[in-house]
Amino acid sequence: MISRDTIIALNARAVAADTEYPERFDLAFAAPATAQDIAALETLLNIRIPDQLRALYQECGAFRHVHYDDSYGQTIALDGVGAVLEQLRTAGDRRYGSHAGQGLVDFIHAHWGGRSDLDDILDEETVKLVNENYIAFGCRYINDDVHDYWYFDRNGMFGNLRFDQDELDYNSWKIETLCDVLPPGDLALDAAQRHAHTLGNIAIYSEPHDTFPGMTLRELIAYQFAAIVASISPDTD
To answer: Where does the Knr4/Smi1-like domain start and stop, copy by copy (predicted)?
Structure first.
């Protein structure tokens, strides 16, 4: 389980590495989520929240850098269940009304300021499949053009999609590839078989491991904090 202390310890490395603006990594934690709120979120999403993320929600709520998406640095945001529920229950335009916890494509739209560029590339069936099978729940702001989007799939596996708005065709291809690794809908597979089928399909592709759902939540979050530290640490030859 990822505890509050674990998050603080991972974040402390970023604070120590940043000799210029360490305050940008000030952390804020949401109130721990109740079992009732998590169940309500699962109902709205029509998907089970993986045990690792459920434990994080109940242990320390969620967390974010207070200065998330400020222009001078990389920061992380994982919204609390209460905030997600409030947003999901508020009717509105798909792009402007979406929020953490929704399908991956809708989540990208929301964090991208509602731009419709993806609609010109991804067909409706792809968007539907990705939104139903990959649920985004957090984000690392890298710069105005590039974000890392954290998600989990119906097998309870975690992944990260790096989205660069200047590489729209390439990033759209990565989103389409997430559909390719899904088991065909006409196969009657149990959870273990779906898991094995997905992992087998992922092995076919040569994309970086953080594109596909194959990490634990601990690995994903540790990777994100380590990437921040690497980005602000002096190069060593």
So the answer is: 32-124
- The Cα–Cα gap between 64 and 203 comes to 33
Query: Computed from CA positions of residues 153, 79, 164, 116, in that sequence, does the dihedral angle turn out positive or negative?
Result: positive
64 phi, psi to nearest 5 deg: -160, 155
Contact present, 8 and 27 (Cβ < 8 Å) = yes
The CA distances from residue 15 to 18, 154, 166, 229, in Å, are: 5, 35, 30, 9
Q: What is the DSSP string of 93-123?
A: -HHHH--TTSBHHHHHHHHTTT--GGGGTS-
Q: Residue 209 corresponds to which tokens in the numbers above?
A: 């491991």
Collect all residues with Cβ–Cβ distance below 8 Å to 7 and sequence separation of at least 6. Answer: 27, 29, 60, 63, 221
Model confidence pLDDT, tens digit, residues 172-227:
888 888 888 776 665 666 667 766 767 776 666 656 656 778 889 999 999 999 99
- The separation between the first and the last C-alpha atoms of the chain, rounded to the nearest angstrom, is 36
> CB–CB of 44/99 below 8 Å?
no
* Element containing residue 43 per DSSP (H, E): helix 35-45
Sign, Cα dihedral of 220, 225, 230, 232: positive
Token duo for residue 12: 């402390």
Instruction: Please name every residue paired with 185 in a beta bridge, in sequence order, or none if there are none.
Output: none
- Alpha-carbon torsion (44, 50, 52, 55), positive or negative: positive
Tell me the residue ranges of DSSP E strands in the chain: 27-29, 63-65, 75-78, 134-141, 146-153, 158-164
